[in-house]
Every structure is written in C-alpha cells, then in structure tokens.
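Data deposition worksheet. Section B asks for the primary sequence of the deposited chain exactly as it was used as input, without tags or linkers unless they were present during the calculation. Section C holds the resulting structure in token form. Section D is free text for depositor observations; keep each observation to a single sentence. Incomplete worksheets are returned to the depositor.
Section A, Depositor: J.P.
Section B:
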Amino acid sequence: MNIKFLDLNAQYYQIKDEIDRAIAEVIESSSFILGPAVARFEENFARFCGCKFTVAVNSGTTALSLTMKALGIGSGDEVITAANTFIATVAAIIETGATPVLVDIDPITRNINPDLVEGVISPRTKAIIPVHLYGSMVNMAHIMTIAEKHNLLVIEDAAQAHGAAFNGKPAGSFGRAGCFSFYPGKNLGAYGEGGAIVTSDQALAEKLRMLRDHGSKRKYYHDIVGCNARMDGIQGAVLDVKLKHLTQWNKARNNVAAQYRRLLSDMPITLPAEYKNSYQVYHQFVIETDRRDDLQSYLKDNGIPTLIHYPVPVHKQKGYIEAGFSGGPFPVTEKLADRIISLPIYPELKAEEIKYIADKIRDFVSN
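Section C:
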C-alpha cells in the first residue's frame, strides 16, 4: 500500500460543493479581508467552544502573542508553559518580551505536569499557558486551582485540540482566553494560515480586534499600537463550512484510534493514554518505542509515512539556546523525544489501511 500521512484531498472532495460555493461568495462580494464570512465563522466557533466571542487572526502563533499583549504581559514578566510543545508556544512568549519558564511533562499524559508548576512560580510570574498537545487536554481543574491560588492568568494553547473537552467543558473555555491554529493539517484546518482567540471577556475581545487591525476601531483612527493580523475572508468561509463537519470528523478520528488500540494492544509499544474525564480529538496518534528510528525506517520502506512530534525539545533548539532561553534538564520531555512516532490518523483512513499499518508494526516487532 501507499498510505498518506494526511489526505486533505479526500476531505475536500467530501465537501467540495459547500467549499466551492462558500469561496465563490467571498470572491463575488470582494470581501477578501475579514468581512461577513469571517464574522459568521467567529460567531459559530465561539458557540462551538462554549465562549461568547471569537477574534479571528492570521495564525495560531499570532493568537497567542496578541492575547498576551492584550493582557499586559511583556518585558519583566514570566510565563509558564510545557517543555513538550511546538516551538510556536515559546516563540509567542518571547515575541511579547516576556520570559518563558518551561515545566517538564507527565510521562502518561505527555502534557505539562501540574504537580511541578508551583515549584517554578516566582514574583515575576504573570501567566500559565497549558498546551493541549496531540488533541488531549491538560488537567485544567488542577491548573485553574493553581492559577486562582497565585492570581495568575491562564491562556490555553488549544492549537491541536479543536473540539476536545475536559469534564465536559470545551478546550479554550477554561482560561481567560483560548488560542487556536487553523494550519491546514489541523483537525479544523484552513486553506492557508489562520488562527483565533476565544474568550468570554468582552473587553479583551474588543482590544484583540483593535490589535489585529493596526490598533483601530474605525478606519484611519488608531487608538493603540497594533499590527496587521486580520483573517482572510476566504479562510473564514472555508473554516465555517468545515466547522459544521468537525464533530463528526473528530468521532471518526476516535474510531481510527480505537482500531489502532485494538490491533496494537498486545505489542511492546506505549499507546496514548485515555481518561474518563477527557474527550480526545486525536490530532496525532503518538506511540512510543525504544527502536523508534528503526521502526520509522521500516514503515517508510513499506509505504507508511510517519512523523515525529517533536524530535528536538524547545530547550535544546539552537536558536533558543543562543538567545539565552535554554533550560532544563527536563528528563521526561527529553526521553519522550527519542521514543515517539506519530502514525497516520485522519477521518478518511480506511480500516484496511489501519490494519496494514498495524501488521507492519507487528512484523517489525516480531523480527
């Protein structure tokens, strides 16, 4: 077989008529920047996330940095986040002028270890950014208790958790704000770059709308210093169409994950953990093995693409070490980086393809 890691073409052809019609409406109206399609998506996505407001922007990284700026986080402040995350989380903190303070992860959840957070809180700490990695939520009850005790802001990095929930409450709705990425490969992906902030704080939403549009409430009048971070109309239209299908797509991802679990459960590999109080959306299906590189090579030779999310932890990235933002050691994060491998997972992945992948992993383990 020749399996794809992600098949966006298959997704497009399922909803082609809806997508084409939505894009055509934007072109016909010439509403290329923000406009009705983006406003409609903002309203629907806020409802989906259990929040009052959405502010659509041009990327998930921008969503994080603008939120911190809007909340007054900057030079001299510290922001706590997970050592195991995509680089954008830490880059956004640095971009505001604040200092990232990394915390090692729980070996089971692979998310920030809440038990370690209080140990790094200082008088300069302003916020915690929990990262819901791979579509699995952080224990937000624990994080919110810590934040309330120490009077800290909570900004959720939900870039990989569209539709995930903890104790029945959606990702993005716990903290002061939740930040999402709509990079094309995400569970809810645009046809280009895109991001959004969700919040129930009206004043924060209004400030974020100004910041994304050069600090302006009305054209050519700029009350604060902002930037150009507006979402394109076409991206808003695409996302609003896809949002209608997201719940079903997330269920399909869970079905793929269940098939993987059934077929791989008796093998000497570590599978993603599952929790009764958490609904995962499986942005990635990440397994662990001591022979990761060999397994990845074997699967590639058999037509199965895989990825590593992520091979080099943030605190070991060259640019961040040279910029003075190194930290650690973070033994759990570092060990994980040597063992993890992401298998193909998307709603259109067929049962026979899943079985083929599992069979090849079994062949590798057996031989």
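Section D:
The two ends are 20 Å apart (CA to CA).
The mean pLDDT is 96.
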